Amino acid sequence: MDTALEPIAPHHEIVSVMGRKIKIIRAGWDNIVRKHPDLANKFNQLVETLIDAETVMISKADPLVYLYYRKVSGRKYLCAVCKHYDGKGFLITAYYTYRPHGARTVWKST
After folding, report:
1. For residue 28, what are the contacts with CB-CB under 8 A and spacing of at least 6?
2. How far apart are the C-alpha atoms of 7 and 68, rounded to whole Å?
3. Tell me: the pLDDT tens digits for 64-92?
4. Nearest alpha carbon to residue 56 among 14, 17, 110
5. Each residue's pLDDT tens digit, 19-32
6. Which has the closest alpha carbon to 46: 65, 66, 29, 21?
7. Pair 34, 4: CB distance under 8 Å
8. Would you say which domain of life the source belongs to (predicted)?
9. Contact predicate 25/39, CB 8 Å
């Protein structure tokens, strides 16, 4: 089985930690995995990041783009980048990073 094509439906809609419905399109996820092969077989980790983020920040470039961060190991975070509009949203990209960054924090776990 191609690792980019994880066993997910054509699209998923989940509710994020901020109460936003986030749509994840299979073709979009496959494209993310092609650009970031280290995310192959990490779809569940992505979903966990959206529903149980440690920090959510607004992008410096676009106030409608939210960065969901969750620590996955040691100092490494998974960042799920989503665009929010009209109470809904969609996944733009995802990547690993060692430091959350954004314009400002809008949500933090307690």
Report:
1. 90, 91
2. 23
3. 999 999 999 999 999 999 999 988 899 99
4. 17
5. 999 999 999 999 99
6. 29
7. yes
8. Bacteria
9. no
Which of these, 35, 102, 23, 41, lies nearest to 68 by C-alpha position?
102
Mention every residue, 6+ apart, whose C-beta is less than 8 A from residue 39.
32, 33, 46, 94, 95, 96
Q: How would you write the chain as a 3-class SS string?
A: CCCCCCCCCCEEEEECCCCCEEEEEHHHHHHHHHHCHHHCCCHHHHHHHHHCCCEEEECCCCCCEEEEEEEEECCEEEEEEEEEECCEEEEEEEEEECCCCCCEEEEECC
Q: Which two tokens stand for residue 4?
A: 């980019």
d(CA 21, CA 17): 10
The letter for the amino acid at 4 is A
Task: List, in order of start, the domains of the chain with CATH numbers.
Answer: 11-102 (3.30.2310)
The owner of tokens 């699209």 is 11
Q: How many residues does the chain have?
A: 110
32 alpha-carbon distance from chain centroid: 11
Over its C-alpha atoms, the chain yields an Rg (Å, rounded) of: 13
